[in-house]
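Curious: can you check?
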Amino acid sequence: MDYKNETTENQTETRSATDARLPINTVAKAKWWYSTFQIVSVVGAGVLTLPYSMSSLAWGPGIAIMVLSWIFTLFIQWQMVEMHEMVPGKRFNGYLELGQYVFGENLGFYIIVPQRFMVEIGLGIVYMVTGGTSMKQVHDLVCYDCNDIKLTYFIMIFASVHFVLSHLHNFNPINGVSLATAVISMSYSTIAWVASAERGVQPNVDYGYKDTKTAGIVLNMFAALGDVAFAYADNSSVLEIQATILSTPEKPSKIPMWRGVIVAYIVVALCYFPVAFIGYWAFGNSVDDNILLSLRKPVWLIVMANLFVVIHAIRSYQIYAMPVFDMVESTLVEKLKFKSTWYLRFITRNIYVALTMFIAMTFPFFKGLLGFLGGFAFAPTTYFLPCIMWLAMRKPKRFSPSWCINWICIIMGVLIMIIAPIGGLRQIIMSAKTYTFYS
């Protein structure tokens, strides 16, 4: 009996020591507008490639896919908000909790955790490439007559920041700048479309497909679907954000959370649609995979936009790295019986930063990465897994509007998951043919 008590006490002490060092620290006292700027703050790397996606889709399909994606993801956001407290007396404070409730503890773990890992690690790689690319453009614009510096070195400089920031204990120091990050996201999105509008339609602009072969056109469309899925991929963090909002029987958290989501999605529309449509209108199919690369003047404004992107990428990398640190450190301490020490955290987090840096330096192909990851990693968590969970929990009547819309989202998500990585992988291979690695 004494041995059992001692064992329980040791486990409690281990859990407490781990919690003290883990990055995720949720306190249910946030206001509705907290959810707004948390969602808006994810407007990042994806928005910069939307004009390029339009060039692969052309006007008709491009506008339809952009608008439908906005509508479907807003609908799925509403369902996620509803599912947070769908079971009386229980709050699902994370994607994993909800998945384990729906699919069972073991099956839910193996469905959700690998998918979330792919999302978070994929975002880490993309933000490494985004941050390094923007830093290089700032250098090239400000010091146009200087010797060229390799993109690899700028990615390493960007990564060096994270070798320090990754040792923050929890979200609290980062959440303090979430509002500023949301403003920064809106700022560089606005600069992108205003500068494009100022440039106007370029001479000899072409709105036709860049590739002349049918197979190339179709594969580029596949990759563009992945780009759009990447841009709208923010559903997986909704439950964690809602967990920070106080909930009472008189005023459940879904009321302020939904208010925040609505405002956020209006802002998202004001960022995404002008960048995508005006950027494509100005440059046609000659637009770069990052719209800021097509914009060179006014120099001071484009430099400012790229600096905003760098700041946003730094914050976003940390936000998506924190759950990885949480999972890895929890597993090492609780399952493999490592001691929760500062040097365990130092080693694991530095290894993760170094790994994402190495992959980003090896494959710094912005357009291909977004298309591949948007389909392979983000389509499941954004489109069809939430809908499957909704059908399992709510059990709407067959062929009712809710049943039909969810099945449309499921089918659409599965198709994107299958075809988008094919287009993205093709773009990576084509870029690698003319790329000198680590150049």
